[in-house]
Amino acid sequence: MGSTTQAFGDGVPSDSSDMLQLAYKYCSARLKKKVNGIVQDVNTQSFQNVVDFVRKNNSKKQGNVVGRIGTPLPVGLLVVGGISSIDHAKSFRVLCSLLNTDMCCSANLHGGSLLKSKVWNAHSEAVSKTLNSLLKQVSGLETDADDACALANWHEECGRGRTVAVVVEEVEAADPEVLKELVHVLSDLGSKIPISLLLGLSTLGNHLYDILPSNVVSRTIIQKFETKPSMQQMDALIEHLFLDLHDLLPFSLCPRTISYLDEHFLRRDMSLDAFEKSIHFALVNHFFAEPLCAILPCFEYIADRSHSKPPEVNTGEIESAGVLKDVNKLPENLLERLRKNSSLFVGSSGDWKKHLQLAIQMSIRSRREWVLALRLLNISAAHVGCTGAGSGFTFRELHRDASDPSYFAKSTDYGNMSSGLHLVAKLRSKIEELPRDSVLALVEKWEDLLQGKLGLLADALKELEDVKEELQSPTLSQGTTELPSKDFQDDKSGFLSNSNAQAESDSENKLTSKPTRLSAARRKGALIAHVNALALSQKQNSKGHADRDITRGVGARLGDLLFDVAVHHAAKCPINLPGAELFCLSAFSSLKQSFLEPSPRHALEEVLQNPTQHIPFGKLSSCMQGGSNHHDWYVAYQSLQKFDRVVDMQEWCASFSDGVSIKQLPSTGKADCHKHRNVGKQAADSRPQKAVRLTQQLRQRKSRSSASNTRRFDWSSKDPLVVRFLQSVRELQISGIVRPCKRRQGEYVEHLVHDGSVPEVEGIEMED
What we know:
By secondary structure, the protein is mainly α.
């Protein structure tokens, strides 16, 4: 592959061309492994049934048990209808890998090899070649033996106790006479060794009876198996590539590439193998067009080989990761390019190597930091967030990008990003932190940029107008807290009881007749709170089912990313999102109309076109049943928030497939407690007193049980008093009156806070 240097570790090339090759090969290997894993996961049940069939029908032939001549041969018909013919080999390779264990060995043959030649004794010659290939695969030895006796002798010497499985894919391509002879030979061989025959058919029905005569079929024990259609395998691959956060690949596809693959592969061939090859071509173009992107796959390759311990990164001093000692030992051409573009990393060009070193270390810390390091290393994505240790989008970068329209004119990978929607979304999140005059000047520059230089969509201009209205609103002054908008208050009403919801609507009318629009950051924070609350509730309802975790472990990060995606989708503007945002974009992309059937996307569009103020949740609930994709559920909810629609959280949760109960949602935090303190106050006055009364009863019962040396109260106890107490506390949490505190071993502490009128209750000892 080329010369190596110790700066990168053993096996890592020293020049840029070899680095690109290594990055491509490493990503290709990871992609191949991922695709094979997806095929196995989708067909797990079918393949497991085949393995059980092989073991079951040959268990009686193990050891010294010898059958008679003409023993029925176990034949499994693996129906692969719906899978493209070029995908057969991939499915059968995965099946053979499952069969190759200590108890079984397999050989994979193609039906096209079972063809007779135009010579005398053609059938015997074709079968001999088949047996020779079979013996080579099961034994792993190069041999010229081509008869059944050689296979029996090998099994007697080396393979005793192991079942032999012969897999023939695309059996329709085989010559019927040769296949008939092969069945006879294997059936006779079955009296000596445990052997099974697995035939892959591309169509349903009794196709084997059309190929073989009845007297041959009578010597077999036939059982049918079916694999999943190619559409399901394709759906699984797309979902893993773009929606799975737990197993990120060391590369990502921009929407332009996704659109190309969608047009040329997904809609035409519908082949998993063709789609995989197309990604390989995209990788070649990607790495050779952007050499800096090849750095991270090389680092991950080093980490896989060295199994290095994730380094600790201190803010004061950057410690060496042990993999790359010095940034100066990077390839010269990459260093030169980084030096020329050093202003894209930090404000001053003197510290760019320091931040690059930090980015390299962070890329090795964990897989979820790949995107951060990629943003730091990729010049074309520098305006997304590349300051220091990933502190986020700074005003300096915004101002520099806005004042330099030629920056976007030179950009190739993220040219569509110049529409400004992504920057507008980031600008919204920084409104409260930046000086008002500076932000207004920045908005005006972006308006000129969109109108004069680029002349792009009016949707982006509309977004900027909304920002200007929010900034120029006379009801807002710098440092003043904004009034919640109507959609935010209706959204929060889902956390209240029915009586509180009515009281809230009464108090809402008293606030203002024309509420100010909620800022993007505030709306995003509220949504993240909902995501986290629903995630905790879902974990409590389905313990032990980690795969059903609706946030997949990254609720806050997911809500942050999906907010931007909802903005981009609502504006109908194609945005090239870098890194992790791609998995969100695929939820609304045109990868396939059948990505989810029925798709929440179509129901969402119908809802948004409805001029009424109330959301018809019945239409959405029909799309949320049957394990629909949770990411689409969140995107739909966020898009509704984007369009300022009235969303009742209680009805929204009821439309979810798992039936998330509002009463099981935890408190939204101390800030929400203060926010809802005066909302529904009269309706909730009796609740703290009820909780205090139940608490006193529990204490009395606890003291009696302690005196009699009986066991303490169990948190999961079905005692009516305990149940009533917990229900009362949860109602207080929901209404914002109770603020839960940390729960230690054997102790559960609750603080009741209601304008100081309710005494503080704590120290209720219960076992977890």
